[in-house]
Amino acid sequence: MISLGCPKALVDSERILTRLKNEGYSISQDYRGADAVIVNTCGFLDTAKAESLETIGNALKENGKVIVTGCLGIKANEIKKQFPSVLNVSGPQQYQKVVDAVHDVVPPIENKFLNLIPQTNIKLTPNHYSYLKISEGCNHKCKFCIIPEMRGKLQSRSPLNILKEAERLYETGVKELLVISQDTSAYGIDKRNELVISGQRKIRTHIVDLAKELGSLGMWIRLHYVYPYPNVRQLIPLMAEKLILPYLDIPFQHSHPDVLKRMARPANQVKTLEEIEKWRDICPDITLRSSFIVGFPGETEDEFNHLLEWLEEAQLDRIGCFKYENVEGSRSSNLENQCSEEVKHDRWQRFMENAQKISAKKLLKKVGSVEEVIIDQVDQEGAICRTKGDAPDIDGNLFIDTKFSTLNQGDIITVLVDASSEYDLWGTPLNLPH
């Protein structure tokens, strides 16, 4: 299986592979050892679409029997026109269609003892952390986004099912849960925040209640894709109480109200700088990460400079930036005053230069401090770790190059920070793993 795109797609891949594994299928590490290849595609941006199509082509060349699923799968006719020999095309979360397609290519072996084997779950992440998807879809209508068309409207999972999955992951040794969805702060809105009761357990279908329950399990709980709704204020005390990690991944996308209005962003009237100040008052060690879009149609030089000034005042800890891309089917692709590629690239460079300076300055302040870290990798040269303020694959690392011989992947230790760069830290272990 080749899984492309975001962590939400990765969770879909895990679910598909889990079902196949529990039916007796084995997973190959390469094309040559496989009877078929599943490509879980991404189609959010044109660059992602191009990568998905290239991957499908390579899989056909290397193996010949290819099943396509995922976000780009909603454009089945387009895929089949370019690749008529693909065996099956399905959209996101259509797990049964993928499994049925596998059955058609490689029929399952009837084994009357198979149902006596305990169910196992496939993870595509290292053993010590896992993504936990709490909902599907999105109710927003941001003009640059086609996710609602791809994945549908918001559908929140039962909090009891989520907690059951979290408890199972904890029992298998997972130490960090990365809570994901298209809009984590909207969790439960579609269910009218209903109260769910099972035996002695009662829990409201609401992100704050869910975060409290997850925090009680004893793992690192990291929240991703949180919109700046007022209910976010209720999450910050949980961070101050160390129930969940003091980390907020919140996609602001821009600062100027006119740009946000053109984007049709939710909560675009929220006074974000004031909110950020309140969050830091409650939880001073909170890490704030966000992503932004430059070159959105109609963005003026003044509006872009507003963003740079806002960035300097906000002093976010982790900052990502994307050049705006016209996506087929998005409302923003029809807007007037499209920015040229030269303007987008220039603004992206200027944005990243400012973001890098902010990051370097904030990380320099951590030198001499003591940080708790989780170890992602250990080799002959040292250990690669993450602080509570760093999510895997998207944020920075903390490197250990001394006293690492007894360290193992998944250990949580405290370190003294010795040095810093624009995005990373270096440190020395202070205690034994736990």
Write the layout of secondary structure elements.
Layout: E1 2-3, H1 7-22, E2 37-41, H2 46-62, E3 66-70, H3 76-82, E4 88-89, H4 95-105, E5 129-133, E6 135-136, H5 147-151, E7 155-156, H6 159-171, E8 176-180, E9 195-198, E10 201-204, H7 207-215, E11 220-223, H8 236-240, E12 247-249, H9 257-263, H10 272-282, E13 287-294, H11 301-314, E14 318-323, H12 341-364, E15 370-379, E16 382-387, E17 398-400, E18 412-420, E19 425-429
Helix pairs in contact: 1-4, 11-12
How many strands appear in the DSSP assignment?
19
Placed side by side, the strands forming the largest sheet appear as 15-16-17-19-18
**How many strands, which pairing sense, and closed or not: the largest β-sheet?**
5 strands, mixed, barrel
Kindly report how far apart the N and C termini lie: 34 Å
